[in-house]
Amino acid sequence: MKESSIKINSSSTLTLWVDLYSDKLYSWAYHKTSSKEMAEDLVQETFLAAVQSFEKFEEKSNPSTWLFSILNHKINDYYRSSFRLPTVNESNIVDRFFDETNTWKQEERPHEWDLTSDNLLDDVNFLAVLDYCLKNLPDSWNSAVRLKFLEEKKGEIICQELGISTTNLWQIVHRAKLQLRKCLEINWFTN
Amino acid sequence: MNFLMLSCKKASELIDKRLIVNLSFYEKIRLRMHTSMCDACNAYEKQSSLMDEALHHHISKSDKNKVPTLHNESLKKKIKSNLK
After folding, report:
1. Quick check: A189 contacting B, CB < 8 Å?
2. Residue B11 lies in a domain
3. What is the reported pTM?
């Protein structure tokens, strides 16, 4: 008897929470993953997890905070699980930028960017280009970069979570940034 | 002198490496020497830290209340039917 009354209670509460919070959770998940399908899956998983651990939820805490903390865990899990060690092909990307003497190729040499526009980092158009460029990275690089910046974890902790060496990690981040730089230059700084 | 000289490829590696691990004293000196003489790597160094700042701002620091709200009614229906 008692068990069924808890169940009714939890499902009506959760239905209310879906109405109140699912749009915000979905928007956040979309912001973090840039994928509608992934964002929908993550929010569904969040509510499933919320049903399962509903008894652990304490009335005194804020439902929104609780749901967001579940979602943030799910987002991290997603990037951890989508990570795989890059293939040889992806490692060769560095050679596109340097000649046989390991000097920048003439057409790849970085030149100073024009940073005269104010508040670049709050410019939605710039952030859209940044998202586009992140999406264009190989999946594993995108995951490594996002994990690095999602929680600002120390390099060693990310490496433990991904089961790779720190050398692997900085090489991946380096390759990702070479490519990101090129993409930003083409799509933003030359306009 | 040669043992102090880095290639651009190596210098750009060190620029990004120090985001993850601390550089040795020797690596730091060699990088400083290289960027002081190489305009391209000097520009890369600035662009690398701008990218860090942008990624930090965009990925880690963003505030959930400032993200534009998207409405997704079909998702709501889907979740509710799973809850039943």
Report:
1. no
2. yes
3. 0.81
